[in-house]
């Protein structure tokens, strides 16, 4: 009997793209699917689209809830899923026409093995390749999985999970960005290996207007620092003897600290004089000092942050910025 795949799709105000996403899932030759649509309080036509598709295809389950965020939606989808494998798809993206069939060709029954594949990025109707002439399939150990995540992103949609693994972890509710990172590193504690397939099977859609909003900065992004700090500590616990991996994570944290310090300086969109921002910047400075390595982080920016008070480094960087304008 074919393994059932539960496809979990959080839905929030994506009426322009939702049909494209659902058509790519429902048109798969591998038909033993359970598609769980979680409408997270959409205010556009998305709920009606979900219900319309559900009325025409018995494989679709629609769950309507008030807006609570993508983590709550994914957790609810996991709770309601009955498949042997779990796939996450974002409602504005789409998948290769043979994605699930290709992945199922390599299922070997191991409940602690995940599948990882490649993705393409598009801001228009980009096409997948028709065939994969140089298909490569590899078995990765746990350390290689984390290395891939660090370099390419902790994207849920680049993975297929056995249900036994996926249901061990819950998404952190209240975190609206970078929840993939926490889920990914927590899951690695239970993962034994991965089947990596070098084929691009997922299309990640980037809307130009949404990209501008995503790249803007405000206090809601402070959580990214905490997530990177969590990632660093978890990596040290899971891979205590892997110096290369721990250094990758340390560098990631240091770059994130510099990003936050830059965006919370006087004159930026956040209010630097607020008590929350002042406390946050102190935390950033403390962690930067703690993780600073002279031989690696030796640069004008690194030295300035490490050895000068924050208000002095702010003056220096603002002056430098004006001179370069």
From TrEMBL:
Pfam families: Glycos_transf_2
Gene3D superfamilies, alphabetized: Spore Coat Polysaccharide Biosynthesis Protein SpsA, Chain A (3.90.550.10)
Cited SUPFAM superfamilies: Nucleotide-diphospho-sugar transferases
Keyword Cell cycle: no
Superkingdom, taxonomy of origin: Bacteria
UniProt keyword Glycosyltransferase, yes or no: yes
Keywords recorded for this protein, A-Z: Glycosyltransferase, Transferase
InterPro entries per the UniProt record, alphabetical: Glyco_trans_2-like, Nucleotide-diphossugar_trans
Record domain Glycosyltransferase 2-like: where: 6-129
GO MF annotation terms: hexosyltransferase activity
Alphabetical list of PANTHER family matching this protein: GLYCOSYLTRANSFERASE (PTHR22916), GLYCOSYLTRANSFERASE EPSH-RELATED (PTHR22916:SF51)
Name of the protein this chain belongs to: Glycosyltransferase
Origin organism lineage: Bacteria, Pseudomonadati, Bacteroidota, Flavobacteriia, Flavobacteriales
